[in-house]
Amino acid sequence: MSEHEFDLFVIGAGSGGVRAARVAAGHGARVGICEDSRVGGTCVIRGCVPKKLLSYAAHFGEDFEDAVGFGWQVGEVSFDWRRLIDAKDKEIDRLNAVYLRLLADSGVTLIEGRGRLTGSHEVQVGERIVTAEKILIATGGRPWVPEFAGSEHVITSDEAFHLEALPPRVVVVGGGYIACEFAGIFHGLGSEVHQVYRGDRVLRGFDDDVRSFLGEEMARKGIQFHFESNVSAVRKLAGGFSVELDNGDVLETDCVMYATGRVPASAGLGLLEAGVEVRASGSIPVDDHSRTNVPHIFAVGDITHRVNLTPVAIMEGHAFADTEFGGQPRPVDHAFIPSAVFSHPQVGTVGFSEDEARNHYGEVDIYRSTFRPMKHTLSGRDEKTLMKLVVERNGGRVVGLHVCGLDAAEIVQGFAVAVKSCLTKAQFDATIGIHPTAAEELVTMRTPVQG
User: Fold this and answer.
1) Mean pLDDT computed over 346-366
2) Are 159 and 127 part of one and the same domain?
3) Which DSSP letter does residue 83 get?
4) pLDDT on residue 120
5) Which of 31, 165, 273, 442 is deepest in the core (most CB within 10 A)?
6) Mean pLDDT of all residues in the chain?
7) Is the dihedral of CA 115, 116, 117, 123 positive or negative?
8) Is 435 a catalytic residue?
9) Residue 331, domain member (yes or no)
């Protein structure tokens, strides 16, 4: 029996921390966990779950319009922001209760408050001091806003979920997935949206064809882009705000939302005092088994800045617990992780972009198709879908798969198994498609568009 109160103490009860705590407890460990907000973390409380609910809501405006082409007579419609937010809050409360019950049923001790390392095996939570044989840091990340004139007037995604009313006009600053998702949400619910981004295309780091295609589709829907621009000042007006751009343009708006990135939530954890190495960015470097430079202190999830996705944090937490408490040593394989952007339209992707594949493999074949989804042949909507395969020429393996369009995330989740399993283009070709679907395009593209 350890001389400490716990075999494992987890700082942060988000997706990764909760999974690690539950699995470790299942292996027989005495586990404690602390959280200074609500159990469930960013994804459940203020991230992917509520965002997806709002994304669903934002699609209904187009759905009502599309229904006419299919013979439906749609009467007058209206949208109630408050009703949506109340319904969203009710669902988040339910999920929070589920997470609390999962911890309790697993025998994990929950201590409310911010944890801080105060000794080699010691964590202070509020007025309480606990000791643990092993400590896991799983505090995730937080939105980052640069300092500039008027930065106190802006909101982030955290506050966007709790606005009292839908802003008639919104300026979204940023070009990443959070910025694109909220631009689509606000626009779909009826706001006039301007998106300001310092780059020349959205979604830096994604495949170039996807970046261009998504930007074009978002603009076609009515989102107004201001590329290669940055905000120099935000000023309060009697009826809203003025946003001054560095190119001289001025935008008047009711809300300014910054989605310019997230940073690790490592401040105030006592990491340096405990001897834990911390990068300048605030992230914690770890080895393949999530171990820091201090042998009994570990870290998983966004705090490590490996792959900042909820399912990755969950897998890292599970692998850590199996390795340290279950006698099942296993690292996490971070290769070929699928991801999605719930923009309007959606993006789903797994594997390398075209440029990345050329850097890794040299010669590649590219298969690309752009088409009008069957739904819109009757709806009349001017919206297209992009599908793309990146194939390593020497062995014929599909090393990149990218979709932008209706149901992209659902499509790519299934195909991610094939890409992760190293299937070849010939095996894709040998698979019979389901007709009529959009996804069948991924097994019927026969002629490369370029080498």
Assistant:
1) 97
2) no
3) H
4) 86
5) 31
6) 97
7) negative
8) yes
9) no
Q: What share of the chain has pLDDT > 70, as a percent?
A: 99
Claim to verify: residue 159 and residue 234 sit in the same structural domain: yes
The two tokens of residue 194 are 């301007």
Task: Tell me what the mean pLDDT of segment 284-307 comes to.
Answer: 97
**pLDDT, tens digit (0-9, with 9 covering 90-100), for 79-136:** 999 999 999 999 999 999 999 999 999 999 999 999 999 988 999 999 999 999 999 9
Distance CA 306, CA 148 (A): 29
State the average pLDDT over residues 157-162.
Answer: 96
Residue 1 covered by a domain: no
Q: Which residues are CB-contacts of 226 (< 8 A; sequence separation ≥ 6)?
A: 194, 195, 196, 197, 245, 247, 249, 251
Looking at 242, 260, 278, the residue that finishes a domain is 260
* Class of residue 273 by CB neighbours under 10 A (exposed 0-12, middle 13-18, buried 19+): exposed
Q: Which CATH number goes with the domain that contains 73?
A: 3.50.50.60
Which pLDDT belongs to residue 1? 47
Pairwise CA distance, residues 30 & 4, whole Å: 10
Residue 394 has pLDDT above 80, yes or no: yes
- What strands lie across the sheet with 240-245, from one edge to the other? 231-237, 240-245, 250-253
User: 276 and 132, same structural domain?
Assistant: yes
Is the pLDDT at 293 greater than 70? The verdict is yes
Query: What's the number of CA atoms in the CB half-sphere (13 Å) around residue 230?
Result: 10
| End-of-domain residue from the set 260, 281, 312 | 260
- The residue range of the domain holding 376 is 345-443
Tens of pLDDT, residues 54-88: 999 999 999 999 999 999 999 999 999 999 999 99
Q: Are residues 256 and 271 in the same domain?
A: no
Q: How many domains does the chain have?
A: 3
Q: Is residue 50 part of a domain?
A: yes
Q: What is the pLDDT of residue 61?
A: 95
Q: What are residue 233's phi and psi, to 5 degrees? A: -165, 150
Is 185 found in the same domain as 277?
no
Q: What token pair was written down for 11?
A: 């700082």
Task: Tokens 């989102």: give the residue.
Answer: 223
- Determine the angle formed by the axes of helices 208-221 and 177-189, rounding to 10 degrees: 20
* Reduced DSSP (H G I as helix, E B as strand, rest coil) percent helix, strand, coil of the chain, to 5: 35, 25, 40
> Are residues 116 and 22 part of one domain?
yes
Q: Does residue 13 sit in the same domain as residue 87? A: yes
Q: Which of 27, 59, 226, 435 is catalytic?
A: 435
**Is residue 334 a part of any domain in this protein?**
no
Residue 390 three-state SS: strand
**pLDDT for residue 3:** 87
Whether residues 296 and 163 fall in one domain: no
Nearest C-alpha neighbor of 402 from the set 436, 451, 437, 351: 351
Q: Which domain CATH number covers 417?
A: 3.30.390.30
